[in-house]
Known about the structure:
The complex is a heterodimer. By secondary structure, chain A is of the alpha+beta class. Chain A has five helices and five strands. Helix content of chain A is 30%, strand content 25%. In chain A, strands 1-2-5-4-3 form a five-stranded mixed β-sheet, with helices on one face. The longest helix of chain A is centred in the first third of the chain and has 13 residues, at 31-43. The model of chain A has no long low-confidence stretch (mean pLDDT 88). Chain B is an alpha+beta fold. Chain B has a single domain (71-391), classed as Cytochrome-c3 Hydrogenase, chain B (Orthogonal Bundle), CATH 1.10.645. In chain B, helix 4 (115-143) runs antiparallel to helix 13 and helix 5 (147-168) runs antiparallel to helix 6 (190-213). The longest helix of chain B has 29 residues, at 115-143. Chain B is globular and about 70 Å long. The mean pLDDT of chain B is 88.
Amino acid sequence: xxxxxxxxxxxxxxxxxxxxxxxxxxxxxxxxxxxxxxxxxxxxxxxxxxxxxxxxxxxxxxxxxxxxxxxxxxxxxxxxxxxxxxxxxxxxxxxxxxxxxxxxxxxxxxxxxxxxxxxxxxxxxxxxxxxxxxxxxxxxxxxxxxxxxxxxxxxxxxxxxxxxxxxxxxxxxxx
Amino acid sequence: xxxxxxxxxxxxxxxxxxxxxxxxxxxxxxxxxxxxxxxxxxxxxxxxxxxxxxxxxxxxxxxxxxxxxxxxxxxxxxxxxxxxxxxxxxxxxxxxxxxxxxxxxxxxxxxxxxxxxxxxxxxxxxxxxxxxxxxxxxxxxxxxxxxxxxxxxxxxxxxxxxxxxxxxxxxxxxxxxxxxxxxxxxxxxxxxxxxxxxxxxxxxxxxxxxxxxxxxxxxxxxxxxxxxxxxxxxxxxxxxxxxxxxxxxxxxxxxxxxxxxxxxxxxxxxxxxxxxxxxxxxxxxxxxxxxxxxxxxxxxxxxxxxxxxxxxxxxxxxxxxxxxxxxxxxxxxxxxxxxxxxxxxxxxxxxxxxxxxxxxxxxxxxxxxxxxxxxxxxxxxxxxxxxxxxxx
Lengths: 175, 392
């Protein structure tokens, strides 16, 4: 793992290296070098299995973090490649040419976080939310509670009680 | 003048990647929706099929009928509140969610769990694997018209659920592995009742072997159906029994040993041709392996001892900033949790990596091409997919 990290450090300039476990490392790479690094990892370093691709919303820094988790099945190790995107213009290069399952992840990210991957197959088709009008729901500024209060009116007969008061009234009605 | 010759071929022309060129205007094709109440899966998902005669020319998977936004809900609950929530992601085997979630949290918070708890977790995961495989075996048989096998396997699965009830009080959602350990060890006399159940399952599996695997109809319909080439394994992110049937010897229990699996004696089961028949046969062997592993665990595990690590007050529990990924071998393949914490009392992001995510979408859309419409349900089942882990 040490030699691999040194190798990609020289080639692509990685930062914020965290060795979470002996077989699991997280690195951050610049947006423009990311696809080159991932391609290199797949074709030259043996990281042939894309475990997952997901995003984390760091709203206070104004950034999205994309995490590509790659797995090397022969050496049995993982590398998490972090890419920081600007939250205002979240556009990332697509990796659909490397893995057949990547378009699915990218479709989901477009829908749930609003991160665009131009050129990815069927990227504009809705994945889970058909006819969604609001902001992408997995962003931190989307309030699920508020949305549910506004969208689903309370059914008749559903009342919220204060538990202490309610129990007191039920158990000791004459007091 | 329109080129009429292009409508005269029996089958459509193909793209270089093996997909068909479809022209719905030519009126040679018909579009059929299978689902959302789909016969081939546990849950709701639909397949948009384009047919030529009764052969599938194009398949598109549509999900979204079960979206409950687990990952979003977890972001506004405390770490301990997420524990009963995360099990709901997979009904047939919720324990892998519990384990992966607890393991990521323990790793990030730096908690070591006691040895008895590790044994107990191994036992529960293995029992859960067995029940899930039994349920799947019944469905697979049912898809090819052998409904009686489903009755048998679901009966013995129910016996195993009784054992779960003895341990935890729950039959479907066991919720026995909170972060920090387990909620208890096995009760008195558990071992003998477990042995009886295992014997009953073995007897049933012998019957299943005779009824299903020696059935000419089952064999004729499944051999050669839905073939997964070994080269497709990494390209499509195939894991678990689907990959092992293609001859790729990858089993997370062996490759990335977790809990007490290094102390158990077993080999990775592989086959050579990943078609529906081989995959089902491989799962039958996995059931027998699971029975063997449960016996080994029962013989080795301590019956008493400390089973919960010392925990902080979970209502005011803050975990330092960090991120990690923990994986486990579930019945369908690689199950994993990617958890990011930011130093507050709530997780910043929890991402669930379910094996169905790749199997049901990219892989199914590829395998369904040129398959008979009567076989799509069986093909879908043989990939052993489960929609809630696609849409979380």
